[in-house]
Amino acid sequence: MTIHDILIWGGAALTALGLAGIVWCIAAVARAKRARQDDAAMRATMQRVVAVNMAALAASMLGLMAVVLGIMLR
């Protein structure tokens, strides 16, 4: 296994983790909407979800960049 393969598979794993985080964010918001929380509780939930969503998007972006870089260097 070469460094290019490791870069590709590592990037794919990072992208999958980011995608899982995005799916978690969607589920968390759906649960919060179903619970019909008051405004303050909904705002606190959304602040937490937005932070996780940004981290998940960043992880997905970095993973896809690693995959593309690994393919280009191959």
Note the main sheet.
none
Unreliable segments of 5+ consecutive residues: none
Classify the beta-strand content into a percent band.
Answer: under 5%
The termini sit apart by 12 Å
Structural class per helix/strand content? mainly alpha
Shape: rod-shaped
Total strands: the figure is 0
**What is the share of helical residues?**
over 70%
Compute the CA-based radius of gyration: 17 Å
The tally of helices reads 2
Helix-strand sequence: HH
Mean of all residue-level pLDDT scores:
95
Protein described:
It is a single chain. With 74 residues, the protein is an all-alpha fold. The chain contains two helices and no strands. Helix 1 runs antiparallel to helix 2. It is rod-shaped. The two termini are 12 Å apart. The mean pLDDT is 95.
Descriptors:
about 70 residues; mainly alpha; 2 helices; about 0% strand; rod-shaped; membrane
How would you summarize the topology of this molecule?
Elements: H1 3-35, H2 39-73
Short structural description:
This protein has 74 residues and is mainly alpha-helical. Helix content is 92%, strand content 0%.
